[in-house]
Amino acid sequence: MSRAFNFSAGPATLPEAVLRQAQAEMLDWHGVGASIVELSHRGPEFMQVAAEAEADLRALMSIPDDYAVLFLQGGATTAQALLPLNFAAPGQAVDYVVTGHWGKTALKQVKHCVAANVAANGEPGGYRDIPARDTWQLSSDAAYVHYTANETIHGVEFRDIPDVGDVPLVGDFSSSIVSEPLDVSKFGVIYAGAQKNLGPVGVSVVIVRRDLLERAGQPRAEILDYRAHLKGESMLNTPPTWNWYLAGLVFKWMLAEGGVTEFAARNARKSALLYGVIDQSGGFYRNEVAAAVRSRMNVPFFLHDEALDKPFLAQAQEAGLISLKGHRALGGMRASIYNAMPEEGVQALATFMRDFQQRHG
Ligand code: PMP
C-alpha cells in the first residue's frame, strides 16, 4: 500500500494515524463486539464518543462556557441557510462581506428571507484582495455581520478578526478552523463543515454564543432550530455517528500533536514554502492574491502556459502528489494544505514544482 500526498480541497486528506485507529476499531469498538457505527447514538458508547468530541474541541479551541457547540448534518451550506432563521427577524437587515465564491454562496442562502446588505464585495477585483475595513458599508441595525474567514477557492484569508462593533460577527471557518489559535469570544457564531480541517464530510460544527439562542428568529421547523438542537444535545434526529466519531479522533490527534499553536507554526512554514516557490519562479508559476491576505490553507496557482497544466497534473500524480487541479471556477492548480497535510508532503510538492520548471522552463 502506498498513500499519496493528497492536496484535495475537501473532502481532504485525514491524518494517517486517525485512519489506522478507525481501521483497528472498525469491527470491534473498545471490546463491545460491534463497530461504533453499528451502535445506538443514545447508547453509553456513542454518548461517550460525543461527549469526548465536544470536550476535546472545546479544549483545542479554548471555547468559553458561554458558547454552545453543536454537531450537525447538512454541511456548511445548511448552516448558512439557518443563520437568518435563527438569528434575524423577518425582513431584518443582515450584513455580508463577500471575499470569494463561498461568501457569495452564503449570501444566496439568505436573500429570500432577510434584507441582505453586501457591506463589502471583493468581486470587482476578482477576489484577489479583501476590501479595506474602512470601506465597509455596515447597516446600523443588522442582526449580524457574516464573513468568510478563508475562501477555499480564491485562496483569500483574513489574517485578523474584523472589528464590527457590537453586532454579532458570524464567521464561516469551514476551511481554516483549528489551523491557528482563535479568540472565540470575538464571535457570535463560528461554523464549519468538517471535511477540511476537522475530519470527514457529513458533520458540521456550529459554535454559538448562548445569548443569541434567545433571539426569536423566524418561523421554522424544530429541526432547523439551533435552540432545539442544543436542548437535544445535537441528537434531535439520528446524528451522523460515524462522521462525528472520526472527527473526534481527529481532535484527539490534534491535541496529541500539540494543539492549534503547533499547527499554526506548521501551517505558516508549509504555506511560506509554497508561496516562496511560486514567487521565486520568475513568472513560471503565479499566485494573484495580495500578499497580506494569501491563504495558509488553500494555495491557488497558475502555470504561465495553460498547455502545461495537463503534463503538470500527470507528472505530479506519478510523483505521488494528487488532487492538485484547481476549482473549475478559477482553473489552474490549487494545493490545499490543511492540518493533516504533513510538512513532508508540501516539501515534496515544492521539490516537484522546482523540478517541473527546470524541465519545462
Ligand atoms: N464555506 C466554505 C468556506 C467552503 O469551503 C465550503 C465547501 N467547500 C462551503 C462553505 C460549503 O460547504 P458544504 O459543502 O459543507 O455545504
Automatic annotation (TrEMBL):
Species assigned in the record: Montanilutibacter psychrotolerans
Highest taxon above the source species: Bacteria
Residue stretches making up the Aminotransferase class V domain: 5-349
GO terms for cellular component: cytoplasm
Lineage, highest ranks first: Bacteria, Pseudomonadati, Pseudomonadota, Gammaproteobacteria, Lysobacterales
Described function: Catalyzes the reversible conversion of 3-phosphohydroxypyruvate to phosphoserine and of 3-hydroxy-2-oxo-4-phosphonooxybutanoate to phosphohydroxythreonine.
TM helices/strands, residue ranges: none
UniProt cross-references to InterPro entries, sorted A to Z: Aminotrans_V_dom (IPR000192), Aminotrans_V_PyrdxlP_BS (IPR020578), Pser_aminoTfrase (IPR022278), PyrdxlP-dep_Trfase (IPR015424), PyrdxlP-dep_Trfase_major (IPR015421), PyrdxlP-dep_Trfase_small (IPR015422)
GO MF, one example: pyridoxal phosphate binding
Residues that coordinate or bind L-glutamate: 42
GO annotation (BP), single: pyridoxine biosynthetic process
Signal sequence region: none
The name this protein goes by in its record: Phosphoserine aminotransferase
Gene: serC
Cofactor note: Binds 1 pyridoxal phosphate per subunit.
Keywords: Amino-acid biosynthesis, Aminotransferase, Cytoplasm, Pyridoxal phosphate, Pyridoxine biosynthesis, Serine biosynthesis, Transferase
